[in-house]
Design a protein that fits this description.
alpha+beta; 3-stranded antiparallel beta sheet; globular
Length: 113
């Protein structure tokens, strides 16, 4: 997954980001700790999907659109985006509805943090 955008404010709390690592990730250190803690609390999904969702978050590929409930997620190829929430996703796997996609898991993690 490729994501090259940098952020000047935390995507979770809105505070100004000061370090290069934080601006690349889009989250400050405190928010990133909370997100990682929330990821460890999610036990309903396969660990590989949770890890992929956490990668999506830490690479800044999950952008909040509305009140940390609806997000824009970057596709794993980096060529497209999907709208996602904890309940649904517009990616191909999300539209099929057979399994929870990692975009939805990432939305659940950020919402729980």
């Amino acid at each position: 997954m490729q994501h090259t955008a940098t952020h000047t404010h935390c995507l979770r709390c809105g505070r100004a980001l000061r370090t290069a690592h934080s601006t690349a990730a889009g989250y400050g250190p405190t928010c990133l700790r909370r997100i990682k803690a929330a990821a460890h609390r999610i036990a309903d999904h396969k660990p590989a999907l949770v890890a992929k969702a956490l990668d999506l978050i830490t690479l800044g590929g999950l952008i909040p659109l509305r009140a940390r409930r609806v997000f824009q997620a970057v596709a794993s190829s980096g060529n497209g985006t999907y709208k996602t929430a904890a309940q649904a996703c517009t990616c191909p796997a999300g539209r099929r509805g057979q399994h929870t996609c990692y975009h939805r898991i990432a939305a659940q993690i950020v919402a729980a943090a």
